[in-house]
Structure formats: structure tokens, C-alpha cells
Amino acid sequence: MSQTTTFDTHAYVKKLKAVGFSEEQAETLAATQAELIDERLATKHDTKELETSLKHDTKELETSLKCDMKELETSLKRDMKELETSLKRDMKELETSLKRDIKESELRLTVKLGAMLTAGIIIVAVLVKLL
């Protein structure tokens, strides 16, 4: 720990002896307690350092996340623009293809209608001759 907590082992030994502990027992227990306190207990200073460190880490994480989000936003905008361009190109190709197909259909219809009209005229002419 960065700052030691004060633990009066002498006063603790006196209290233990007063309730029936031997000198050796009291000193061993006091030494063990002091060691535990020094090694395991956090002081106000320790928690303050931890709080400061956590605030710093949180700030760094926030900054990093903002940067990552900005990069993601830029990437998404670029991808959307590319998609938009691709879709416009595909729509133009589809429009051109549809116009070509319509023209081909019109031509086939014109040929078929012309053939039907010619066939009709021929039938009428044959019928006129026969009658």
C-alpha cells in the first residue's frame, strides 16, 4: 500500500493480556493483525489514488471511443456513398436494358402485326376471288 495505516500493537497486546492471553499469544496476534492491516486494508489515500486512476482510465476510454466512433461514422458515410453510386449505376444499366428490351419488343410486335395484316389482306383477297 502507498500509505501505512497506524495500528498500535503495544496497546493491542496490553488489551489481549488483560483478557487472559499470554505475552507470546498477544504479541503473535498483534503482529499478525498489523501485517494484515498493512498488506490488505486500503487507506483513504489508496482509494483516492484508485479513484483518480479510474477517472483517468475512463477519460482515456471515452476519448478512444469517440475517436473510434468518428472513424466508424466516416467509414459508414464513405460506404454509403459508394453504395449510392453503385446503385445509381445499376439503375442506369437496368434502365438502358429495359429501354432496349422495349424497343426489341416493339419491333417484334410491329413485325407480327405486319405479318398478320398481310395475312389478313391475302385472306380477304382470296375470299374476294373465290366469291
Automatic annotation (TrEMBL):
Chain segments annotated as coiled-coil in the UniProt record: 69-100
Keywords, comma-separated and alphabetical: Coiled coil, Membrane, Transmembrane, Transmembrane helix
Domain of life: Bacteria
Keyword Cell inner membrane listed: no
Intracellular or extracellular location(s): Membrane
TM helices/strands, residue ranges: 109-128
Gene3D superfamilies found in the cross-reference section: 1.20.5.340
This protein's name: DUF1640 domain-containing protein
Classification of source organism: Bacteria, Pseudomonadati, Planctomycetota, Candidatus Brocadiia, Candidatus Brocadiales
